[in-house]
Amino acid sequence: MANKRCLIAAAGSGKTTYLVNEIWEHFQNAPVIFVTYTTTNQLTICEKIRKRFGFIPTQIKIMGWYQFLFRYFILPYKADVLQELNTIHVSLTFDSDYSRTYQTKSGSTFSKYKHNDIKGKFFTSGWRIHKDLVAEFAFLCTRGNEDSIVRRLYESADILCFDESQDFSGSDHEIIKLITRLYPGSVLFATDPRQHIYSTTKFGGKKYEGKIDLYLSEKVNTRTKKYVDIDSRSLSRSHRCIESICELASSLFQDLPSTETCTCLECMERRDKYVGLKGVFAVAEDDIELFTDKFKPMNLVFNRAEKSIVIGKCMTMGDSKGTESDVILLYPTDEQSKFLFNSRNTTLAEITRNKLYVGITRARYLLGIVFKKKHKFSNNLIPIWKNSIS
Question: Fewer CB within 10 Å, N side or C side of the chain?
Fold first, then answer.
């Protein structure tokens, strides 16, 4: 295992499985910490480790990003930032609507705290840290404690794995810089900037939002020393999606390497065994019921407010991250429909584009995309599905 690597992964390339297999190959009672942001991915990691090992070895710890920051950065060193915290228990609050400012009736905007008011900035009245400020407070805890923090981490694990690291933002990156430069063990990052949907904080800088590989290249590596190898080849092929689905997904990101379908013998044999219809098709609004009855797809919508014409259960494109299905029926927004059915030069908002990429790449073999009567269908970018097509 290379000492420190950042793996840029395509959807369906098996990045979590790859991390687990890397551990398996080098695992000889070496302690490991697996860190990711979402609870869903923590469960996925547990499942893959059980599948690989038959159980979860005690030497492998799986935790969320906030848990990681609390355990190794905040709880041991919080009193160095605010002395009164030495005898106070601090915890986390998931106040997603938290704002650092307030607005008066006249429309003027003011900060909720004074410049040096650490308690007012980071904590509620019950000493709970606002979730969007956890990493920023953790970074304050590192000042003067860098060597001690790194020593604690190395005493706990020889290998650190950060999955779905496109979710890291803001002060998270400063924490990552400290780890990659000072931590003597192995570090693996797995990221897919195209699947940047969630974020650990809403106060992150936009330049590196969802682009940890760019941050590592520009802010961690230097002209004289490369701390992290950026690997864009090992996980560039999708084991999940057939070629036409990969091509459509790749068209969303002209500035990134194309997502290619895997052509290994195992993947080819699996695709050959699938006897149903394969490909990408536009499904007319009047044909939704026929398509649904025939193929039993997983239905994906942009948000739950747009499920009025959906037949059966549905999931949002964002929530579908980490899932897959032989057949997907996608219900795009008007903005997404312009890109899909009119012109690939249509500019999409980042979150709209990323969610569309996630939705497209959930399909293994067949992707149906609904177009409504009001949508213009002015080209041959996607063939129209007819009931006569088996």
Answer: C
| Distance between CA atoms of residues 32 and 124, nearest Å | 34
Q: Quick one: pLDDT at residue 27?
A: 66
CA-to-CA dists, residue 297 to 311, 321, 366, 388, angstroms: 10, 16, 9, 18
pTM beyond 0.85: the answer is yes
Residue 287, token pair as written in the block: 């044909």
* Partners of residue 187 on adjacent β-strands: 4, 160
Residues 299, 300, 304, 310, CA torsion sign: negative
Confidence of residue 99 (pLDDT cuts 50, 70, 90): confident
What are the E-state strand segments in 319-362? 325-331
pLDDT tens digit string along 22-65? Answer: 877 776 678 999 999 988 889 989 998 898 889 988 899 999 99
Burial of 13 (C-beta count, 10 Å sphere; 0-12/13-18/19+): buried
